[in-house]
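in:
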């Protein structure tokens, strides 16, 4: 059970977005993709999910070429949280989480139990009967994370893709969400996410992939990838790395600029 990307190229018009991408996603692993804005992270993310296809190269999901899966088959295998969820009609937050059970032909009573569990573990019980459209950005992000958990629940092989899952959350909810992701990986899920916070990546990831100008600079353990040299290449800033029992901490050099 793995997702394997082999020699991927992707372009839009004359602009090369991704080049020679080699990557694997494994069950039981929390894998974080990092890089600057415009590095190609979102394109790679959507390619690995099966939403778009490379012009060159192949992606295999459990030994079968990804493009051979139907959308309904993929919905039973992997759950995807994108940055934007366009729900414009009135709907209770609980019903949004219940949408995650739609791909599965499971018992209705069991589906309801799973939805209630996902409401509880995302601390969203208080918003269950609220109109989704009236929620704050952080509350919506928690509800959509709950929907992804409901979709992935009890459906091995299980892949979870998360595009910036903590971008709208305060610090306690960032850690709660990533603790849940860490637990899911420890339970055998393959969790692949984009993060911008390098210190969160260093704390939580089993594997980090650093993308720069459409190419992978380095992929491996956080302490192997998140080095001062690699970060300067990818982000154009100097950093100091502090070693601590909890993991490495990255401190960027503050550069004063005149407005």
């Amino acid at each position: 059970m793995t997702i394997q990307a082999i020699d991927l190229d992707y372009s839009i018009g004359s602009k090369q977005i991704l080049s020679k991408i080699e990557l694997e996603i494994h069950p039981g692993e929390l894998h974080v993709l990092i890089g600057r804005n415009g590095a190609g992270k979102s394109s790679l993310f959507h390619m690995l999910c099966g939403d778009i296809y490379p012009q060159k190269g192949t992606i295999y999901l459990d030994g079968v070429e990804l493009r051979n899966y139907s959308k309904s088959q993929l919905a039973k295998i992997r759950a995807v949280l994108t940055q934007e969820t366009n729900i414009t009609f009135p709907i209770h937050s609980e019903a949004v989480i219940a949408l995650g059970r739609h791909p599965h032909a499971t018992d209705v009573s069991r589906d309801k139990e799973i939805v209630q569990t996902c409401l509880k573990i995302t601390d969203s019980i208080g918003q269950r009967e609220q109109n989704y459209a009236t929620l704050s950005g952080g509350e919506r992000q928690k509800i959509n994370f709950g929907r992804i958990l409901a979709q992935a629940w009890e459906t091995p092989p299980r892949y979870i893709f998360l595009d910036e899952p903590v971008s709208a959350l305060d610090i306690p909810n960032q850690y709660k969400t990533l603790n849940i992701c860490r637990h899911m990986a420890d339970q055998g899920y393959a969790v692949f996410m984009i993060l911008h916070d390098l210190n969160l990546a260093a704390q939580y990831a089993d594997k980090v992939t650093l993308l720069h100008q459409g190419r992978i600079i380095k992929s491996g353990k956080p302490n192997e990838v998140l080095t001062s040299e690699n970060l300067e290449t990818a982000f154009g800033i100097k950093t100091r790395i502090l070693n601590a029992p909890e993991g490495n901490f990255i401190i960027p050099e503050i550069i004063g600029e005149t407005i």
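note: The longest strand covers residues 15-25.
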